Every structure is written in C-alpha cells, then in structure tokens.
Amino acid sequence: MTKNQPNRPPPDKAPDRNESQADSDLTAACLIASLRHTIGNDVTDPRLAGLTDELHNKSERFRHIWGRHEVRSQRGATLLLSHPSAGELRLNREQLAINATPHMKLVVYSPAR
Q1: What are the pLDDT digits (tens) for 59-103?
Q2: Which of 15, 55, 27 has the alpha carbon at shortest distance from 39?
Q3: How would DSSP label each residue in 30-83?
Q4: Are 91 and 85 in contact (CB under 8 A)?
Q5: Cβ of 79: how many Cβ atoms within 10 Å?
Q6: Could you say which of 62, 74, 99, 111 would form a disulfide bridge with 34 (CB–CB 3.0 to 4.6 Å)?
Q7: CA-to-CA distance for 12 and 109, rounded, in angstroms?
C-alpha cells in the first residue's frame, strides 16, 4: 500500500468489478435496512423524512432497496465503502448499545483483514 492510498489493496489483490459491485449492493442493503430500524416508529421526524425524501429522489438504488421494506439491526458486519480519494475501503462495523442512553449507539469502523 502506498502512502497516498493507505487502505487500497495492491493491484493484484484488488477485488474484481463483479465482486466489488456485489459487496457494494450488500453494504447498501444493510445500511438502508439499519436506517429503517433506527427510524422505527418515529416516522414523523421531519429531519428523517427530509433525508429519506432526498435519498429517494436522487438515488435509484436507494428507491429500489427502500421499497423492499427490510428492517434489521446491524450489530456487526463487513462493509465495502467507496471513498472519493482513498478508493475502496473494506471495514468491519460494530454497533454497541449505550445502556444509560437507550436511543444512542456507538458505531465503530475498523479495517477488515
């Protein structure tokens, strides 16, 4: 890995386009299902309504996945995110409950191995 691209795999280790797209689709589905879980019954929050409206208007992928109505809590997962300058990042995601504040969670991302 180079200094300018710290999290990019070497060219011979880079995932192929089909694998990368499949990971990206899975990541999007997980995050959108988690968003539905986070919203829960609080469908009247104008900020959340504005966010989902904006995503719905700007992203065909979001519209398709949102329309499936999947809801699930995301505790741990490995995600592939595409960063504009760092490239593809494969990250482990852990979501931890904070007992003293039931509506808050700590989300930790770390490099996947």
Answers
A1: 998 899 888 888 877 666 787 888 899 988 888 888 787 888 877
A2: 55
A3: HHHHHHHHHHTT-TT-HHHHHHHHHHHHH-HHHHHHHTTT-----SEEEEEEEE
A4: no
A5: 19
A6: 74
A7: 25
E strands within 1-113?
76-83, 87-97, 105-111
Query: 80 forms bridges with which residues in the sheet?
Result: 90
Please state the pTM of the whole predicted model: 0.52
* Residue bearing tokens 């300058």: 85
The pair of structure tokens assigned to 77 is: 């997962």
Structure tokens given for 19:
């694998």
